[in-house]
Amino acid sequence: MPKLGLIAGLVVVTFLSVLGLMWLLIPHPRKEVDYFVMGGTSTMVSMGVLFILVIRHKRFKQEIFYKRRPRATPPDTNPPDSPSAGTGGHPSS
CA 18 to CA 11: how far, in whole Å? Predict the structure, then answer.
């Protein structure tokens, strides 16, 4: 649980940092589109940080994108209609 709080805190700090930086970089007078760009950029960067933190979390290192399937057993070497397949070598009458 403390790890979840740390990750959430880092995402919030990243969002606010990028938003503050964008606030300083975009000149006055600001329009509605400027606020949209600031919020969109901050969200995109903070979600990227969240993605990286979740990927690097050691619980998810093994199976983050796929789960390994068990190995398939090799097929029988004897075809099913051969006389030695499943009858102990005795043909059935």
Answer: 11
Q: Tell me: the pLDDT tens digits for 10-63?
A: 999 999 999 999 999 988 898 999 999 999 999 999 999 988 888 777 665 566
Domains in the chain: boundaries? 15-60
Tell me if 45 sits within 8 A of 18, measured CB to CB.
Answer: yes
Q: Are 7 and 54 in contact (CB under 8 A)?
A: yes
Helices (H), the chain: 2-25, 32-56
Closest-CA residue to 18 (of 40, 51, 33)? 40
